[in-house]
Design goal:
27% helix, 593 residues, 10 helices, 32% strand, four-stranded antiparallel beta sheet, alpha+beta
Length: 593
């Protein structure tokens, strides 16, 4: 039985945090850090921001990167202060006028105390951190309001995307509830899910909707009637979504596209020439919206029939890069973000992962498990290495640069077979490995060590059932994704010890199938573990799976050729094989006697 020393774990973790903050925190508000792809090997979980009681659908940094706003299904807005620590701490919990899930929260530019929010209730609201009970209603409409974005260099004018169009609002006007003094337009009867202004032109913005067309629009063309269609400057689409009729050469959207593919998030490059487009039901694409250096069969705008059968002109040759490897079908809120001087991009996945690519090559730099179900938001801090993420879990994860991981897959969970089915979220929430903070991980490891020691004492008294329960409880404690590398080694040693000891108990309880299961999990982590090979071989022998038993025995003897326990088991299994062959021979002969 293995004795594992995990003393000073909390102290070591705190020391790491202090060192990292001293190295990287000083003066970050006014200085940019030079980023490098090697940082992805060092992304650690620094902590969890825990206050919300529902899914966290919207997280945004303020312009200086020292405050974070979050909105949730619990109808609350929280403000988190990062001005003195990378860990972040709760600054305010604010009630709102929302009646349904909050989908987005945005700081009013240059007003860090003012938060504008929107949600699935058709409402746009405003809260003031300095007056927690002064929540106001800006607009009370119908349908879903998914995104808000302020006009660049303006502290008053913002757009809000509705399920039936856009609302333009000016905060210098009176707070109203019926929208009579707003500008509003429709978007070809499509629900708008992605919205962002161009960084270098306060009139131009990008829209993603429940169809596969990326729209670049001009604020100066907005009308005052909701029935009036938005005047679109340009439309873009990826070419694999266009179908050409062989008989009449007519171009249309592929039929599957109309139902299953839309755009859940958009993000402009710093130079305002490209737009990241996060497709629901497809991949992430970088599309050039300005420039004429493309040449293909679609080098000029082509006319296609959109999802409503109406003719529209689109560019279909402007894809600069494709980013593959993530699933986006369960939610309509997944954002996409440029990060670290536009050299990399990040987004979430239905598998609960954050995924990062190199912008230029499309190479996946890192996959990190960041939610038990779905990650919707990935927000890099504009001035330092901190990344925050949120999704179906009720917390916000804070990530930063720390220890280097030996294996870049150490922060990944096994992919679930039911990804893509939101109806089984509750099952995934229950069975998935938790994502826990460093301090809680240390507590869990301490409890697991104590439970393992209890199990060892029960084994000494041959109380096999009690020992089995103790080991199972210890394994439940360590069923989490390690937040930082130094937790992983301790976690794996504990797991291997608990499972091999548990297999011994299960052999005494004659639960041979579970012995095989426990030992198999050990061997996936430690292929030369003699105890696991011996106990699984013993269980196979009891189950009369003699060939499998011999395989494990022979593997063990390769590592320890003189191991007497394995040699005795080998002779026993071979004897049983010979006896079984003799029995079968007699049975066959009796058929013809």
């Amino acid at each position: 039985f293995v004795k594992i020393n995990i003393k000073m774990l909390k102290n070591n973790n705190n020391l790491l945090t202090i060192i990292e903050e001293r190295k990287l925190f000083s003066g970050y508000e006014n200085k940019k850090i030079k980023y490098h792809e090697s940082w992805f090997e060092k992304i650690n979980l620094f902590g969890l921001l825990e206050q919300h009681t529902g899914c966290v659908n919207g997280i945004r940094w303020n312009s200086s990167g020292n405050l974070l706003a979050s909105g949730s299904d619990d109808l609350k807005v929280c403000i988190w202060d990062f001005s003195s620590s990378f860990m972040g701490k709760l600054s305010a919990t604010l009630s709102t006028k929302h009646l349904g899930n909050i989908f987005d929260t945005v700081f009013r530019p240059n007003y860090d105390n003012i938060i504008v929010s929107c949600g699935c209730d058709g409402r746009v609201g405003l809260v003031d951190c300095n007056s927690p009970n002064s929540a106001k209603l800006i607009f009370d409409g119908q349908g879903v309001v998914s995104k808000i974005d302020f006009q660049p260099n303006d502290t008053n004018v913002f757009l809000a995307s509705f399920s039936d169009g856009l609302i333009l609002y000016d905060l210098r006007q009176n707070i109203i509830q019926n929208g009579t003094n707003t500008l509003s337009v429709s978007c070809s009867n499509q629900s708008i899910t992605g919205l962002e202004f161009a960084p270098n032109n306060p009139s131009i913005f990008a829209l993603g909707a429940d169809d596969p067309i990326l729209r670049i629009c001009d604020l100066r063309t907005l009308g005052k009637k909701r029935s009036q269609d938005l005047s679109v400057v340009e439309r873009f689409i990826i070419p694999n979504l266009i179908h050409q009729d062989r008989s009449n050469k007519e171009l249309t959207l592929k039929s599957v596209t109309r139902r299953d593919i839309g755009i859940s998030g958009v993000a402009w490059s710093k130079d305002g020439t490209k737009v990241l487009t996060n497709y629901r039901g497809d991949d992430v694409y970088l599309i050039s919206v300005y420039g004429s250096h493309f040449s293909s069969e679609f080098s000029r705008p082509v006319q296609i029939l959109d999802g409503d059968g109406d003719p529209v002109e689109v560019f279909a040759d402007r894809v600069v890069q494709t980013y593959k490897g993530r699933v986006n079908s369960e939610t309509c809120l997944k954002e996409v973000r440029f990060m670290w001087d536009d050299k990399f991009i990040g987004t979430g996945s239905d598998g609960g992962e954050m995924i990062f690519w190199e912008t230029k090559t499309g190479k996946i730099e890192r996959r990190i498990q960041a939610d038990r179900c779905v990650v919707n938001c990935v927000q890099p801090n504009p001035f330092n290495h901190i990344i925050v993420s949120s999704g179906i879990d009720s917390d916000i994860k804070v990530w930063g640069i720390g220890e280097k991981w030996k294996n870049k897959n150490d922060q990944c969970a096994n992919q679930s077979n039911d990804i893509g089915d939101s109806l089984v979220w509750h099952r995934r929430m229950k069975s998935a490995r938790s994502i826990t903070s460093p301090s809680k991980a240390a507590d869990k490891l301490h409890r697991a060590q104590d439970l393992k020691d209890q199990g060892n004492e029960y084994v000494k008294s041959k109380s096999w059932t009690a020992a089995n329960r103790a080991y199972d409880s210890a394994l439940s404690e360590i069923h989490f994704i390690p937040p930082q590398p130094h937790f992983l080694e301790i976690q794996e040693k504990l797991e291997i010890a608990c499972r091999t000891n548990n297999a011994h108990c299960l052999l005494q309880l004659e639960n041979y199938e579970q012995v095989v299961e426990e030992c198999t999990k050990v061997l996936l982590k430690s292929s030369n573990n003699i105890k696991a090979l011996f106990r699984r071989a013993t269980a196979y022998s009891k189950l009369k799976s003699y060939d499998e038993a011999l395989v494990d025995i022979n593997v063990g003897l390769q590592f320890e050729p003189t191991n007497s326990v394995l040699l005795n088991l080998q002779r026993d299994v071979q004897q049983k094989i010979n006896q079984e062959k003799e029995r079968q021979k007699k049975a066959f002969q009796s058929l013809f006697s």
